[in-house]
Amino acid sequence: VSTLVVAEHEGGFVKPSSLSALAAAEAIGKDDNRVSLLLGGSGPGLHKAAEHAASSHPLVSEVLVADSDVFAHPLAEPWAELLRSVQHKGGYSHVIASSTSFGKNLLPRAAALLDVSPVTDVTSISEPRVFVRPIYAGNALCTVRYTGEDPCMMSIRSTSFSPTEAMSEAKVVPITQVDLSFLSEGSSGKSAWVNLKSQDTERPDLANAPVVVTGGRGLKSAENFKVLEQLAEKLGAAVGATRAAVDAGFVPNELQVGQTGKIVAPELYMAFGVSGAIQHLAGMRDSKVIVAVNKDADAPIFQVADYGIVADLFEVLDELLKKLPDKK
Amino acid sequence: MKILVAVKRVVDYAVKVRVRPDRTGVETASVKMSMNPFCEIAVEEALRLREAGAATEVVAATVGPSQSADTLRTALAMGADRAVHVLHDPDPSRPLLPLTVAKILRALALQENPGLVILGKQAIDDDCNQTGQMLAGLLNWPQGTFASKVILNKEKATVEREVDGGIETISLDLPAVITTDLRLNQPRYATLPNIMKAKSKVIKKVTPEDLDVDIRSDMEVVEVTEPPKRKAGVILSSVDELIDRLKNEARVL
């Protein structure tokens, strides 16, 4: 078994979602699995991330670095060709990426270039080629066996694979530059990155936050979401939202939790004014502890909540803000 | 310019699906079927581009059994000009995979020569989120996935995409493949006169063999099961009680 993990990095570090992909590589094979980790981009951040990658997991035997401005932005066209080229050279049996917007955009395109069918959103690995993945918004779990040629490609749900503790710095694995001569003939150049509009926030990343507080249609306005943000502040939590709240313009789209938004599985998930549509439940049902506050006692969210309060959410929010201690 | 839109017939989004007792899949007999919601958004976007004068013709296509013709009729009733139905009867243990669908759509794209192909970003049944990206890769066209805004000018498409960190804007040379996200538009309902009109529009039937596409499935469904149920929780009467339980019982505060 040999595995290529397509990793993302930020601020000189491999992203937590990619560390989860390494944990998935471990689930495929521990003793006879040669793991290579691929990073792309340019500048000092890339090289710092490569050093982080080199000591990120005991199974990593090599870090591959594609150093070019072409990879500075997550454009699927050059990245898919990079992946094809690296796969042709390395002949990996498995290729893993995390189900981030980067991974979802890239992996199927690269798989098509390699003429293989990838497995989306793997949540569990029972055998090196047998996987469990949710279908129908998580209302059913499908076990599939991949019977095609190498590589067996998959995207994994990072919430289902906990990264292993960082290893000691003692092991130093080689960092190799990827030969980029394939770039000249490809489709790169047909797409161009323009910009990324993001909200500056001090909050933890929604996908990895240990506590998530979410607002639904019941929040009624963007103003009211500020109260939810105060609670998030107190709990060191990330703020999430339902599709209804995003569609109503209360909060930006990247806060949407659900089947087609972010998948979260925090220690504590607190839902305020969330009815609990199946599409929303799909994004948070694996949370450890779920709290729901809704004035409608029949709201489906109460069927998955560990603790429910049937009351006006604004009164509960006010009381929580008064009674909860500040997070140090 | 012509726009090709791919649509899929799926279990309606409001249906609570049930796993079949024999664990081969979910119950689809006598269950309401509809056009995949992301595909509706794709049809709507194509129609708006045609109405704005950026496109001249909208062609809807699907791959599926004879009943999938209903989904094409829906696209035609919304306003698509004509449709292509690639007939394929499914085998539950060997599902039709996105790669095969992408190969079929490539064959159609090479016949139809569209300036743009629009697809939903994912189907709400298998939740794969692959076909658009694969089609773009097979055609060697650029891709704008998870689109929340599309602006066409003569040779380029500017696409705003919903990504993890916010809204990303990219610029694509045409022809290109676009997949739709929820915020792209609000699909229209087909009106009765348009439903009547759609009955006389043409649905061309072809087979994968006609298109020279081999149906290959490299995925075997071992079993389909219910997800683990969460234990029923408790309704608390006060915020004090909630704080106490979170601290001392759940130990998450």
TrEMBL record, chain B:
Q: An example of a Gene Ontology BP annotation on this entry?
A: fatty acid beta-oxidation using acyl-CoA dehydrogenase
Q: Which GO terms describe its cellular component?
A: mitochondrial matrix
Q: Read off the PROSITE patterns from this record.
A: ETF_BETA
Q: Which cofactor does it need?
A: FAD
Entry's InterPro entries? ET-Flavoprotein_bsu_CS, ETF_a/b_N, ETF_b, ETF_beta_N, Rossmann-like_a/b/a_fold
Could you state a single Gene Ontology molecular function term? Answer: electron transfer activity
- Electron transport keyword on record: yes
Note the Pfam families from the entry: ETF
**UniProt-listed SUPFAM superfamilies:** Adenine nucleotide alpha hydrolases-like
- Highest taxon listed in the record's lineage: Eukaryota
Domain Electron transfer flavoprotein alpha/beta-subunit N-terminal intervals: 23-215
Q: Where in the cell is it found?
A: Mitochondrion matrix
What's in the keyword line of the UniProt record? Electron transport, FAD, Flavoprotein, Mitochondrion, Transport
Its family? Belongs to the ETF beta-subunit/FixA family.
Q: How does it assemble?
A: Heterodimer of an alpha and a beta subunit.
Tell me, what does this protein do in biology?
The electron transfer flavoprotein serves as a specific electron acceptor for several dehydrogenases, including five acyl-CoA dehydrogenases, glutaryl-CoA and sarcosine dehydrogenase. It transfers the electrons to the main mitochondrial respiratory chain via ETF-ubiquinone oxidoreductase (ETF dehydrogenase).
What is the name listed in the Swiss-Prot or TrEMBL entry for this protein? Answer: Electron transfer flavoprotein subunit beta
- Per the UniProt record, the source organism is Oryza barthii
